[in-house]
Amino acid sequence: MSIKKISKTQPDSFEFSKENFVLAEKEINKYPKDRKASAVLSLLFLVQKQNNNWIPLIAIKYVAKLLNMPYIKVYEVVTFYSMFNLSPVGKYFVQVCTTTPCMIRGAKKIIDKCKKHISENQNELSKNKICSWTEVECLGACVNSPMMQINQDYFEDLDENKSEEIILQLLEDKFPTVGSAKNRKNTAPENGKTTLLELKNA
Ligand code: FES
User: Which atom of ligand 1 is nearest to the CA of 139?
Assistant: First the structure.
């Protein structure tokens, strides 16, 4: 698991775009007035989405102020959850699962492709600063291993060539087709159903 790194370069200011401010208010209004803090995760996701996939320290202060929370409490949330990034990860953040089922089915080859095309070390931006990669623990799609997550989407049933193709597309600023590389629907068997054949929707 990678260690959370705080960027040495930080912006001087942060505020939500008009559109995100409306969304933030909507989230806050879902809770009683004295329980605004309950919206903290939603607001942090909005920050990360607006700010190219990472959360600057000034944005943590901004969210703390909006929610009437102490800065340290919001900081604790950001540093606890692995899905929040505290330094730039690029427009495309590739998370490769390296837990046992994915490892057995070839995750190491995906890592090799990341090293070859994105950057030698994880948590480093590619030369064109558009992409970075990291190893993560199980992402809950073991049945379709090996797999990786890019931003919010899953790419499953990968092999060496498919993962290389995806990475090269990202580096050209193109977003690849999401889902199973074998066109499996969810976790359906690769060669079609073998049981419950008499049930239409099983
Ligand atoms: S082990 Fe890779 S998704 Fe679970």
Answer: 3
